[in-house]
């Protein structure tokens, strides 16, 4: 049953129902408003100033053309502000997509007459899942998959374990550079940004429970602690749990603190971390949001029942009201807070995009037989290369090993400096 829902926002026509053409007369795209193309181009030019590695890689690629002949289909979360199609690249995405819109957009990218992708660039595994489900024959011509998220990588390992992964896949999520910046440093900033934009709250003295102490959880906890919040952590992994304790956070079960906390933040990559039972027991005006995966962490579906009233307060902010008048503040309907309610720093996108590009180049150009039908980590040399391309931004100067030091450590003077299993 649908919940009672009041919404003060304007009812806009779905981009799917609009007939739009770009300056070249093409209609092979679907965005909210193609008239914003000029604005989008200026936004891209501003962003390029904070993307030193990607710009360096682009300059190098102009001469070498390492992806000549590649036909890449990609799936990325929509990022504020929604940018229009880049010249020659059909884009199907807009902010505020419904779930049906989301899968429609993915299908429009894949199911194109006369076009067959030979590389997949995925974030969350949804695109890979869709092709497996709807167009499995496409994998005959696909050379590889590049995946950048915790959840997407988990799905790939499941496919591999079941013997169902039919092409090589590159796990760039566990590249140290990507993981630290996209998961730790990015979330350390965007958690505060998203909460401020949506709720205008102060953080000092607020009681917060962060579910999960992986890289995302570590970033969120560090930011909130620095702002004076009282932070609790829930965790299933004893190693991450011990880290939380050593960092000064109280390790609890969610049930132990659910009645007293002011904010609940999920960062697990799991599903149904916050259940209807938890939601029923929350105090009045508790803020609930997700920094983890998709919209699965908070059981939002359980709130869409006749006895509860949904009130749209502002964009991405809903009050869910119980019969006794108690209300919770649900952000982005349980979707990712930093993608829905704030922005991802451009410098972080430079790191993730450069890592993805190098992974695509590696898989696409690899000689036959180098990579089997399995999941691989990005070679450590490339991981270090991504970091080195960003150092000039900080006027940072690397120390170089002497011949004697390199021999002592058993390393090449130019790296890699760590083994491929190194994760810190």
From TrEMBL:
Cofactor binding, note field: Binds 1 NAD(+) per subunit.
Pfam families documented for this protein: AdoHcyase, AdoHcyase_NAD
Sequence ranges assigned to domain S-adenosyl-L-homocysteine hydrolase NAD binding in this UniProt record: 183-344
GO biological process: one-carbon metabolic process; S-adenosylmethionine cycle
Record's GO cellular component terms: cytosol
InterPro entries per the UniProt record, alphabetical: Adenosylhomocyst_ase-like_sf (IPR042172), Adenosylhomocysteinase-like (IPR000043), Ado_hCys_hydrolase_NAD-bd (IPR015878), NAD(P)-bd_dom_sf (IPR036291), S-Ado-L-homoCys_hydrolase_CS (IPR020082)
Record-linked SUPFAM superfamilies: Formate/glycerate dehydrogenase catalytic domain-like, NAD(P)-binding Rossmann-fold domains
Region (Disordered): 1-28
Keywords of the record: NAD, One-carbon metabolism
The protein's required cofactors: NAD(+)
Positions that bind NAD(+): 214-219, 235, 338
Similarity section: Belongs to the adenosylhomocysteinase family.
PANTHER family from the UniProt entry: ADENOSYLHOMOCYSTEINASE, ADENOSYLHOMOCYSTEINASE 3
Protein name per its UniProtKB record: SAHH3 Adenosylhomocysteinase
Organism: Sylvia atricapilla
Taxonomy of the source species: Eukaryota, Metazoa, Chordata, Craniata, Vertebrata
